[in-house]
Amino acid sequence: MTTTDMAEWGWDPKWAEAFGEYREAGLVPGRVTLEHKHIYRVMTEEGELLGEIAGRMRHEAFGRADYPAVGDWVALQPRPADGRATIHGVLPRRSKFSRKAAGPAVAEQIVAANVDTVFLVHALNQDFNLRRLERYLTLAYESGAQPVVLLSKADLCADVPGRVADVEGIAPGVPIHAVSSLQDEGLEALRPYLAGGRTAALLGSSGAGKSTLANRLYGEEVLHTGGIREGDDRGRHTTTHRELVRLPEGGLLIDTPGMRELQLWDADSGLDLAFRDIEALAAGCRFSDCSHGGEPGCAVQAALEEGTLQAARYRSYVKLQKELAFEARREDPALQREERDRWKKIHKQVRKSPGRH
Ligand SMILES: Nc1nc2c(ncn2[C@@H]2O[C@H](COP(=O)(O)OP(=O)(O)OP(=O)(O)O)[C@@H](O)[C@H]2O)c(=O)[nH]1
Ligand SMILES: [Zn+2]
Predict the structure, then answer these.
(1) pLDDT in tens, 52-68
(2) Which residues are documented as binding site?
(3) Which residues span the membrane (predicted)?
(4) Rounded to the nearest 5 degrees, what angle is found at the Cα of 263, between the Cα atoms of 262 and 267?
(5) Of 6, 77, 183, 198, which sits with the fewest C-beta atoms within 10 Å of its C-beta?
(6) Residue 109's beta-bridge partner residues?
């Protein structure tokens, strides 16, 4: 039997350390490459197995976030004879993308885990939109993965340096690369993000060029075309589908449909990181609870007046902040009550105020 080198799938000494107890219990590690209705494709040293959740793990799970997702490292009891395995646990995630699971109760559902780098694919055509990019940056920062902006379809843009400068203005400290999958330009610059078993994921609007880029990185049609070429005597016959794939030159790429359905929710820390320039300004306001709405000594207003902070960027920040607060209230009845009480009080005060009759 051929053995898979798990380092090529991202395994490293830190994962090995986290796996210690599972190893003592006689389990082996595997990485989830596809989830389908609680059946998981898992890459292991013994090749790919179909994993099912152990009964005990199912009983102890609090919610959907306790179940494995694409990119997770799991602890398995392999049954190689029938190509199956039982999953007993999930290693703590280094990063995660999640969405709200459908249903009456708010539940977090993990869409992808253990992503090192998230490529924010954004097209250099009429879809180019800094405000949308800020939204994706917030999502990316919230995940814990490192964001990298890929300005795709560079062949369609007459002023690439100008657009790169625009993005620099809203993404402080974020690497930015202009690429063209059609003309095979700029893709070499992505290699470092995929070196040494590192994992990247693609995030971006529909039509931004994610699948085209994935196929280019893979060197042939692999995603959304029905499967993957298996290195067996069936040649190009496609036998397997995965959402986490190993690229021929090394590195791992996650391109799951779940990433296309991500919405902004529960992303306060992501927002702070994506707008750290505004956070830093706000720290300089005279009042620690400054609303930046006209109080004296407001550093945000001062920066807006000086033009060092762009009004559009500030508006975008406020809008995302409101949106997140709205989502949080929707999820939390206590917060809803608090908000209702706050407004009741405000209305009462307005009625009592002397200027009114
Ligand atoms: N000119 C140009 N067109 C490109 C490039 N990359 C992708 N496209 C085109 O853009 C369109 C959308 O590309 P996709 O790769 O399907 O986009 P996607 O982000 O995967 O879209 P969804 O699957 O809807 O999320 C296709 O018609 C591609 O041929 C590029 O580098 N240059
Ligand atoms: Zn202020």
Answers:
(1) 999 999 998 888 888 99
(2) 152-155, 204-212, 285, 290, 292, 298
(3) none
(4) 110
(5) 183
(6) 99
Cα 7 to Cα 152: distance, rounded to the nearest angstrom: 30
Map tokens 């494709």 to a residue: 41
Model confidence pLDDT, tens digit, residues 136-173: 999 999 999 999 999 999 999 999 999 999 999 999 99
Ligand 1 — pocket residues by CB below 6 A?
A: 152-153, 155-156, 180-182, 204, 206-212, 260
Give CA–CA dist 284/272, Å, rounded: 15
Q: How far apart are CA 77 and CA 94, in angstroms?
A: 23
Q: Are 203 and 258 in contact (CB under 8 A)?
A: no
Q: What is the pLDDT of residues 11-66, one digit of tens each?
A: 999 999 999 999 999 999 999 999 988 899 999 999 999 999 999 999 988 888 88
Q: Any idea what the Cα angle at residue 73 is, between residues 82 and 112, rounded to 5°?
A: 110
E strands, the chain, in order? 28-36, 39-44, 47-53, 73-79, 84-90, 96-101, 107-113, 117-123, 146-152, 176-178, 199-203, 228-229, 238-240, 244-246, 252-254
- Kindly state the tokens that stand for 46: 């013994």
Helix (H, G, I), strand (E, B) or coil at 268: helix
Residues of the binding site for GTP: 152-155, 204-212
Closest to 197 measured CA to CA, from 256, 152, 244, 140: 244
Task: Go through the domains of the chain in sequence order and give each one's CATH number.
Answer: 6-92 (2.40.50.140), 113-261 (3.40.50.300), 268-352 (1.10.40.50)
**Prediction pTM value:** 0.86
Beta-bridge mates of residue 47: 44
